[in-house]
Amino acid sequence: xxxxxxxxxxxxxxxxxxxxxxxxxxxxxxxxxxxxxxxxxxxxxxxxxxxxxxxxxxxxxxxxxxxxxxxxxxxxxxxxxxxxxxxxxxxxxxxxxxxxxxxxxxxxxxxxxxxxxxxxxxxxxxxxxxxxxxxxxxxxxxxxxxxxxxxxxxxxxxxxxxxxxxxxxxxxxxxxxxxxxxxxxxxxxxxxxxxxxxxxxxxxxxxxxxxxxxxxxxxxxxxxxxxxxxxxxxxxxxxxxxxxxxxxxx
Amino acid sequence: xxxxxxxxxxxxxxxxxxxxxxxxxxxxxxxxxxxxxxxxxxxxxxxxxxxxxxxxxxxxxxxxxxxxxxxxxxxxxxxxxxxxxxxxxxxxxxxxxxxxxxxxxxxxxxxxxxxxxxxxxxxxxxxxxxxxxxxxxxxxxxxxxxxxxxxxxxxxxxxxxxxxxxxxxxxxxxxxxxxxxxxxxxxxxxxxxxxxxxxxxxxxxxxxxxxxxxxxxxxxxxxxxxxxxxxxxxxxxxxxxxxxxxxxxxxxxxxxxxxxxxxxxxxxxxxxxxxxxxxxxxxxxxxxxxxxxxxxxxxxxxxxxxxxxxxxxxxxxxxxxxxxxxxxxxxxxxxxxxxxxxxxxxxxxxxxxxx
Lengths: 250, 355
Hints:
The structure holds two protein chains of two kinds.
Chain A: E1 3-12, E2 15-25, E3 30-34, H1 41-48, E4 56-61, E5 64-65, H2 71-77, E6 78-81, H3 92-97, H4 110-122, H5 138-150, E7 156-160, H6 168-184, E8 188-192, H7 196-202, E9 205-210, E10 213-218, H8 225-232, E11 236-241, E12 244-249
Parallel strand pairs in A: 3-8, 3-9, 6-7, 7-8
Antiparallel strand pairs in A: 1-2, 1-4, 4-5, 9-10, 11-12
Chain B: H1 10-39, H2 47-55, H3 61-95, H4 108-121, E1 128-130, E2 136-138, H5 141-165, H6 170-194, H7 197-207, H8 216-235, H9 237-244, H10 247-252, H11 257-279, H12 285-297, H13 301-326, H14 334-353
Antiparallel strand pairs in B: 1-2
Helix pairs in contact in B: 1-2, 1-3, 1-13, 2-3, 3-8, 3-11, 3-12, 3-13, 4-5, 4-6, 4-7, 4-11, 5-6, 5-11, 8-11, 12-13, 12-14, 13-14
């Protein structure tokens, strides 16, 4: 087990946003956090990597309590891809190299460069490595962000809506890459997603959040129409195609 | 996660090498201009004699005095102030993630001007002794400098305090800076309205930033502060890169964004405040130089910061040399020239910026 979250509570200005959130993530697992807007999906991700401090509860990564660690040490365990990516006049190589920040004091060594090089190859970004990221498409930028999180050499990847601004082709490409990275490096990933059918296609486990708590934690095959109706408040049909559930609203 | 495969990216090393070469060339250029600048002026000194005077081998007494007492402090002040203002501007632009970050736009210069005006008017440091044409001196420069410094630090503390209250967001700091600038401009105008002729002249004179104002004593303070702050900035280059990538991303990389932003802001303000208090307002160097460098070698702060320092030094030195020659025998304060040059350069950067 890589990630173990036990009874997290989080309050914002006195209002409870997350309550009694408890779940585990195993090695090689991709977990999708689902739920309507404003339910606390992003807040949950931020609580996991300590950007936000939960008012109670524990977050264990590989048996170490994240909430009691230095930010830099956390960044060696958890790679985080935020929802919005800034651009600038820096190359994709440099942007990805930044992921080595938690390991670098000042000088970049051969190992850092080798790791970045490897990540660029596995993301198929070789031809763009020395292009400035302000001249990149949304999909390319998202790959750079994923690369940055990868070279942190984390055990756990957190991704906040990694597909939000991408077209279908890029969505599929990014999610396949995430799965590939998780399986190949035997790590795990927790991501928030909006598109249910996409989530069911690419996740091993789905957590439905409702009213700040976990409403259901199931594998995609076990998702029922009732669960979706209870969480999102709309009527849907579920059809299965090649074993993957497809959600069709009424 | 482990990456065993992958070969060292040689084209990246070449790319990095080009950036280092840019900085090295900049340093060479700077060295050349330092010699050239010391040889030109009211009295022309051949470069060979400049070198002789500097090394102390066989220069004439007259050249020796001109070089050591007049030219060298002025040249080094231009170098130090140019580097400090430019690197301070680069850091502000980076940590505020805003291309308009500079001592000018954040009200720090205005606060210094108010401090000087306050000193002239209220503390009475403004009686002038006009020795010869164009050389007006403020009777008690240290009070004026002190007050300018005090107020500019006050402005930056206020900006930082507001930012702390609101979570050190970049937008908050910029808006607080704009508010400070407006407030202190109003304060200066208020004082100027009630000032008599002599006081008014002293206030206005102070705002003309001029590197000739510093002697060896002032230069050593300027150089010390600039050096320490610049080293601090270089050491934090990785953190500024991370902040450039966005607050969330930087936090995910273990960077304490609020702390980096507040400390960076204070250090950049300190450098600027010291330079501006001693020399007066020198605009546009801190704004334009980092933009030029960013266009030339990109926004990676590991190279942007040293390159900005070098280019800032070259730019202010060249401007100061030009300002000394352009209306000779009249000596123009360098700030007038930087403002004249800076505006069109900035316009070019804006127009050609986003293709």
